Amino acid sequence: MAAALIAVAALLVVATAGLVLVARRRLAAASGPPAAARPEALVAETAAIVSAARTEALAVREAAAEEIAARRAALEAGEAALAERERSWRDRREVFNERRFDHRKRQEEMEGREAEVAGRHAEVAATLEQRAGIDREGAARMVLESLDVELEAETAERVSGRLADLGVDPLPPARTLLIAAMERQSAGHADTAPRLAPLPLEGLDDAGRERLLTALQVVADATSTELAVDGERDQATLRGLDPLGREVARQVSLEVLDRSIQADAVPPLLLRTRHRLDAVIAEIGERALWEMAMEGRPELADLLGVLHYRFSYGQNALLHCKETGQLCGVLAAELGMEQPVARQAGVLHDIGKAVDHDVEGSHAIIGGELLRVLGHEPAVVHAVQAHHFDVEPASDLAMLVICADAISASRPGARRDTLAAYLARLDQLQEIAARHSEVERAFPLQAGREIRVFVRAPRVSDDAMPALSAEIAREIEGEVQYPGVIKVTLIRESQATATAPVQVGRSVEPLEAVLAGAGLKRRRRKRKRKGVGSGPASGAEA
Asked: What is the C-alpha separation between 184 and 173, in angstroms, rounded?
């Protein structure tokens, strides 16, 4: 800093000298040749200027030196403050390091204690599971199930209490609405859908019988059906799960039987029948949409047309859907809901049955996914998926579809099944359950929708019952043809029997005394009936 100030002073001196020379040259140029007296004046003037410049330079130098001293003092004070701060920071850093070390040590101790506590918890849990005979997941499942049961009971009690507080009985109005909805049904219940019937084989010679069975086998292979021949009744039957395949097989088999068609001529006949059936299905579906005042894509009409050839417990699926739609519309009108949406949900609630033979899963879930793809409203999709409680009902429309579906399915004459098929299904269920050595007896219930199996307690433990029930359910699924679902319930009963031994060594009353006492009691009862009192004679006799 001092060197800079000295350099500035030197520059000022040089600049002053330069100015003096410039001024001298100008005076010489203006006045011509200098006189004898001028040099002395100029020398004096120059000396004065140089002296003034030197004085000024010295003053600047002194000021610079003073400023340098002040700044140096400030710098030294700042350095001292920084040194003090650094010393304080080092002390704090040492304290911080000590605290961090203590904290890390405590954290390690806490982690060790946590690991020890976790190990003890694991030991306690393992001991509890061993003593209780149930794992953690099973215990949690048991608690949740008990909570669900308690919540359901509490919900019912709360609803009943609220209704009691309001003084309202919901059963009479609900019963009135349902009766009014059923009475306002004007559609007929005539089912004109064709069904497969056995084909008679009597009256055919061996060649004709072989020719007919060969042609029917070609039909069965092309329509995914099964050809069964009953030798006792001398008839053949085509059976299958695909409704369109069954109808094609029915029409072609009848034509084969009537016209005695060879097996080589069956494929063209199958092709013509399929084309003709596709047109019929589209027409039936469009007519159903028109009757129910609905609009939809052509695929929806085709699906409804397929339901005309689909049956559930003998009830035509399309007729059932139309009945459900009409009931939904009537109930929605009584309840102040939107009738078109309710009628649409009722008609389409079983739309999944049109493809459930090709797609695995519940027809309710399948139908909901189909309607979602076809662009229907989310409310209708939810009602379709929830009408069998595959999805928890969360809307009034879903409950409306559930009620209408139950009414249509439970009306008199809605569903029927042949007695032979029904009895055969029950016998088959009993046979599948009884083939297991652990089973004592089995009882089909609810028209074959549930089978209750009593197992031998010494042979089956409680832990082995779920596996046994699942095995029986798999065998039923693989061997029995049934609509809907079949519930398998296993019951394990433990009995304890004890017998009191004969009392040896104690006195027993003689038989003659017992008989005499019994005769005396009979005579007393006779006298009481005749009105004779028990006087002295009675005492003497006694």
From this structure: 17
Residue 482 CA to residue 429 CA, distance in Å, equals 11
List the structure tokens of 316: 């035509």
pLDDT, the chain, mean:
80
Q: What is the 3-state secondary structure (H, E, C) of 215-271?
A: HHHHHHHHHCCEEEEECCCCEEEEECCCHHHHHHHHHHHHHHHHHCCCHHHHHHHHH
Q: 498 pLDDT band (50/70/90 cuts)?
A: confident
Mean pLDDT of 67-79: 90
CB-based burial, 17-26: b 16+ in 10 Å, e otherwise? eeebeeeeee
Long-range contacts of 43-52 (CB under 8 A, 24+ apart): 45/20, 46/20, 49/16, 49/20, 50/16, 50/17, 50/20, 52/16
The pairing of beta strand 487-492 with beta strand 450-455: parallel
Q: Is 245 exposed, middle or buried (0-12, 13-18, 19+ CB in 10 A)?
A: buried
- CB-based contact 200:234 (threshold 8 Å): yes
Residues 352-379, mean pLDDT to the nearest whole number: 88
CA distance 364 to 116: 52
For residue 328, what are its two tokens? 């939904």
177-197 average pLDDT score: 67
Q: Which three-class secondary structure state does DSSP give residue 516? A: helix
What residue type is 175 in one-letter code?
R
pLDDT in tens, 444-475: 887 777 899 999 888 888 888 888 998 999 89
pLDDT in tens, 39-61: 788 788 888 888 888 888 888 88
CA pair distance 290, 463, nearest whole angstrom? 56
Mean pLDDT of 55-69: 87
Q: For residues 281 and 273, is the Cβ–Cβ distance under 8 A? A: no
Cα dihedral angle (380, 385, 388, 393), rounded to 10 degrees? Answer: -70
Phi, psi of 311 (to 5 degrees): -130, 145
Residue burial 362-371, b: 16+ Cβ < 10 Å; e: rest: ebbbbbbbbb
d(CA 125, CA 115): 15
